[in-house]
Amino acid sequence: MFEKILIANRGEIACRVIKTAKAxxxxxxxxxxxxxxxxxxxxxxxxxxxxxxxxxxxxxIVIEKVMExxxxxxxxxxxxxxxxxxxxxxxxxxxxxEGVAFIGPPASAIESMGDKITSxxxxxxxxxxxxxxxxxxxxxxxxxxxxAQEVGYPVMLKASxxxxxxxxxxxxxxxxAREGFQSSKNEAASSFGDDRIFIEKFVTQPRHIEIQVxxxxxxxxxYLNERECSIQRRNxxxxxxxxxxxLTPEVRKAMGAQSCALAQAVGYTSAGTVExxxxxxxxxxxxxxxxxxxxxxxxxxxxxxxxxxxxxxRVANGEALxxxxxxxxxxxxxxxxxLYAEDPYRGFLPSIGRLTRYRPPAETRSAxxxxxxxxxxxxxxxxSMFYDPxxxxxxTWAPDRPAAIAQMRNALDAFEVEGIGHNIPFLSAVMDHxxxxxxxxxxxxxxxxxxxxFHGVELPQETLKIVGACAAAMYRLGEIRRxxxxxxxxxxxxxxRDDWVVDIQGHEFPVTIAADPNGSTVNFESGSHRVAxxxxxxxxxxxxxxxxxxxxxxxxxxTSGFRIRxxxxxxRVTVRSPRQAELAKLMIPKVAPDTSKLLLxxxxxxxxxxxxxxxxxxxxxxxxxxxEAMKMENILRAEKKxxxxxxxxxxxxxxxxxxxxxxxx
Length: 665
Description:
By secondary structure, the protein is an alpha+beta fold. Strands 14-13-10-11-12-15-23-21-20 form a nine-stranded antiparallel sheet.
């Protein structure tokens, strides 16, 4: 077995590989850029080597710099993780020439399957069902439009070397095909150093289901069931689960057999994933093969008990698989929620900065439930603008799907992240969405269910009463503390009242509280709730038991109440005396400033292009400028007809969030 391996990656996947390597008794080497000098993967590894400036194209994807780190440390093998050099044939060949093992497939398989154009041709030749499209190289936007017309709209423009949702656009007409072609090329060149684009038919109402394969160098290949990855935003997966709630055992077996046949046809070894789109009739079409470990691999590990990283290391060491297809079972259900540093209330735009608070739920494993959190960050660390905005991958497991969803709800409620925008509220909202709970999902789920974006959650009235009961009980504890303040006037005793008015999401609930040493009974006009907790004022997380059910509330004290976050809702909850509540209704509401004549930068980013000039009349939907953040290009468009009166930014400018880009008359 290898004595030392180098992880040619960063963030959560580097930490994930280090954990398994340590469990196997293998020493690890981390590499890092300027931005990652204090990163978690650097702290976890036995050794760490600095490889250059913060941009990935000057550090993590510079092959010679990684090779020098290997020579410097004497690493015998390299695990590439995902992204960066994980599917780079030249990197695999450089390792082979150096006599260093690549913990992944052969360079020939990377070349044939890692390139999406070539892989589709090979799949078609092998008899695998493929999506109609044009697999040749496309010279320019005019040719892209012509091909799109021949294939038939809608079409998907995709980077040949792409992954992670980058370099991908859906076009429904000629204008979108022309614009999407250029943006896809730019993103592909920036992220992968390869700007080749291909076009395929976009299958409407599809599910994205993928098969995990595992092959060795001795002719053995097995599939470890499927993952449902249909909850996507901008073609980037957000929530994954295993198994799929949609597939029948017969279709699963057919997809697995095809995946193994394809892998063996190209001499594939190591872990890999064959992705399919599946229509409503369970017809499946080959999409691509990812010749690496997938981001969502933990859900497969949770339902099969197979450590994929360990298997990859053993295969790279020349060992035969110790498990057969008959050994692969489906044990329970697993979900993965990707926590991203992106603000759902701002159209999911990237958010960077310092994690002033980062407290994930405790990782546990029992016969009935499990919580797993794969992460590469820590409290006090920073989310950089140079890399993918992932914070963590929160996974839950349970014997069945409803229980796994319930476990995920509680884990998300208990996950504390402060200092940056993040998508926990949105993930929580999805977990309660009726279509998701029923398993009735497609890749268009987010687009269809949140067409105007995510603006928070309006909780059902019964749930509001539960939150209101907790808020009233917590507020009463604060009142008790305030009565004990020293320096009071003699003969002046302050009594804590029992009657309150709770205002939450536009609902007003008069309540009375009957407290005892074991908790409080909060009485509403109809019904009551029993609340027990060890929460004390100042704690940001309130672990409550309401009517025998454990829940977690994120709590922040504010005037006359709390800011409470629960199940995707961000609520201002006030608890007042009846007289205070009566007077509060007479207060004039605060009006937000008018920004309707300003274009504000929605995220910290770099101005790539300004498409208008002072004096131009712009129409609704017209492109105003392009902002790049975290390797993604974001096109800002006019919300209404207007005339540009002033432009404050130029290409190359780095702007903070809400910086003024331009003004309108």
